[in-house]
Amino acid sequence: MLQLQNVTPFAAERAVQFDRQGGHLWVVVVKATYDLHPDGTLSLSKQQEPVKTHPEYFGEQGHSTLKRDAEIVFAHPGTAIMVNGSACAPEGEPLRELDVGISVGSMHRVLKVFGARHWEAGFFGLHMTEPELFSRWPLRYEFAYGGMSRQQEEGFSDNPVGMGFFVDRDDARDGKLPHIEDPRYLIKSWKDRPAPAGMNAIPAMWPARARFGGTTDEQWITTRAPLVPDDFDVAFFNAASPGMSTNVPLRGGERVVLVNLTPSAKLAFRLPRVHFNLLTTMGGRTVRQHTQLDRVIIEPDDSRLVMVWRSVLACGRDARRVQVTHVDTKKDLHTGRFYGV
Fold first, then answer.
1. CA-to-CA dists, residue 201 to 49, 220, 240, 305, 314, angstroms
2. Does a structural domain hold residue 263?
3. I need a surface site. Which of 79, 162, 212, 240 has the fewest CB within 10 A?
4. Is the pLDDT of residue 153 over 80?
5. In this predicted model, which residue has the larger pLDDT, 123 or 85?
């Protein structure tokens, strides 16, 4: 029972989770890893990344950017899009600031990246220095607005791993400004408190996600745990940075454009269109399961594209009725391809 037969080249995993009422849900996740080539073509990666059951960070948890969130969830709103990469100056020519952007279908996001700057004391108060030259800069939340005050007395909860947060003028003097900003809300004063700007995933404990987690008080502990709180919102499972997700799930085939995220300045490709055939044998009958594309992860520095699909089947009060799920792909009628490439 509770078996998974995966005959695709992709990674797959399964789990039993609870719905809001305590019923069992059979969750199957399929994850595809593609190599992204300089001409915009894609090919199946020889090494398929496994499904992540726990969050993974670029460095130490609580002190670095989230690289992968847990990927087995019972619900997800739309499709989350994440970019782990770097700002790349066109032709490698050093410059002081650079706009980087991504579009996936109707979703568009632009960030402004600066060279190193700091607050300098002058006759009329603090002013920011001219950005230093750079040709490449990592796009991570360590370089977005946030962080701890230099006295380590107070932090910016929306991005505790960032930089540029100061509690007073003395704290800000000679302090570094963030490298990554939203061009619509550029910092003008050390007192400014902009929302952190990024394209990476954000952790569940940051306010942008935690506010959807519901009320986990003593009453919840005694009356509902381990079920989600009554006021839980599935938006909690969306790990994308603000502005980096779609309301309606992507289907594959959408055009992707990366601007100044690769050495070629602009790279365009289309998301692979994959049609899955998930057949689950449960209680002596066979059920066909629908899949949804939950996450698209683009990693230009590593020439990698990752896509994560999810399927959920309600099992009542006993998931042990599930015997096996067979995971396969169907040929796309337009391209004749089984795996999208």
1. 17, 28, 5, 15, 28
2. yes
3. 212
4. no
5. 85
Mean pLDDT score across all residues of the chain = 95
Domain boundary among 148, 181, 214: 181
Q: How confident is the model at residue 323 (pLDDT cuts 50, 70, 90)?
A: confident
Residue 19 and residue 136 share a domain: no
What is the mean pLDDT of the segment spanning 179-201? 98
pLDDT at 87 over 70: yes
Determine the structural domain holding residue 78 and report its residue range: 3-84+201-330
- Average pLDDT (241-247) is 97
33 and 52 part of one domain: yes
For 298, the 3-state DSSP assignment is strand
Following DSSP, what letter does each residue of 41-53 receive, concatenated?
-EEE-SSPPPPPS
Give the Cα separation of 118 and 124 in Å (integer): 16
- Asked whether residue 190 is domain-assigned, the answer is no
Cα distance between residue 292 and residue 76, in whole Å = 9
DSSP string, 56-117: EESSSTTSS-EEE-----S---SEEEEE-EEEE-GGG--BSEEEEEEEETTEEEEEEEE---
- Residue 163 β-bridge partners: 145
pLDDT in tens, 31-85: 999 999 999 999 999 999 999 999 999 999 999 999 999 999 999 999 999 999 9
Residue 288: which H helix or E strand, with range?
A: strand 285-289
- Give the whole-angstrom CA distance, residue 226 versus residue 21: 11
Q: Do 245 and 296 sit in the same domain of this protein?
A: yes
pLDDT digits (tens, 9 = 90+) for 269-290: 999 999 999 999 988 889 899 9
The structure tokens listed for 88 are 């790349």
Interatomic CA distance for residues 83 and 299, integer angstroms: 6
Cα separation, 50 vs 71, in Å, equals: 10
* Half-sphere exposure at residue 39, Cβ-oriented, CA atoms within 13 angstroms: 2
State the Cα–Cα distance between residues 194 and 214, nearest whole angstrom: 25
In order of 17, 82, 138, 195, 209, the CA distances from 212 in angstroms are 19, 19, 29, 18, 6
Q: Is residue 193 part of a domain?
A: no
Tell me, yes or no, whether 194 lies in a domain. Answer: no
